Amino acid sequence: MDPSPRKARSRTPLWMRAASLLSAGGVRAWMSTLEYQALFYDPHVDPIHGVGGPRIYVFWHEYILIPLYMRGHCNLTMLLSKHKDADILFYVAHHMGFECVRGSTYGGATEALLELSRRGQHMHLAITPDGPRGPRRQLAQGPVYLASKLGLPIVPFGMGLDRPWRARSWDRFAVPRPFSRARAVVGPEIHIPPGLTRPELEERRVGVETLLNQLCHEAEAWAATGERREGAVVVKRQGIDPTRAAQRREQRADATNELVPPPSLTVTPPTPRVAG
């Protein structure tokens, strides 16, 4: 079972707690200079609205700073590596309004999947499916397996930045330039049937990976040109505290039953439909 943030903090060196708090403040200040726009297949999938049941959000590891800054306090649990390199990120994510589960396909995979399954009953899950070691932009089977087992839809987030600085890491981690453009192209809910065989899971995995890469390429091209897109919306950060976020979700719970659910997506088309 993943330790609670309070228990984990009690075992954390004081310098790391201080560093994570300062890092969280630095991320907020840096990322607040960017200009954010997005295109949605279905705007209701944005976790800021608190509409609908839990979902599994997937995005590439190199762009983790964008959701980390934009979607804290949105009832999200993020999967992070158990490696020591992710220790500070664990506490930064906590300060930014995320709950976290530690684990990966290299260590703690079974324990992490069990904990994600438990939290997926009442929370959204945020997964970087090519982390923590890559290969870059290749989707692991974990999110597809969870979606099939839990009956949760996958929502792919394609993101891009205008001429970001790139780290010399396995994922070419993207550091945005201050006052630059950030863009997202968010796909529809992808429903994975239960009881799939391993070859069927692999087919779905390839389909989700292909779609996520196409959305990401579209977002990167949009960020580079800065062109106007029909249907684009200015994206605001979720800046309220957890109590107010919970109150907002309760106030909008009645609206969930009034929404017409979007059609399921069969994850096989060669080219996604991108608005604009």
Automatic annotation (TrEMBL):
Superkingdom: Bacteria
Annotated Pro residues bias: 260-276
UniProt entry tagged with the keyword Signal: yes
Membrane-spanning segments: none
Protein keywords: Signal
Signal peptide: 1-29
Annotated ranges, domain DUF374: 71-136
Pfam families noted in UniProt: DUF374 (PF04028)
Annotated region (Disordered), positions in chain: 239-276
Name of this chain's protein: DUF374 domain-containing protein
The organism of origin for this protein: Lacipirellula limnantheis
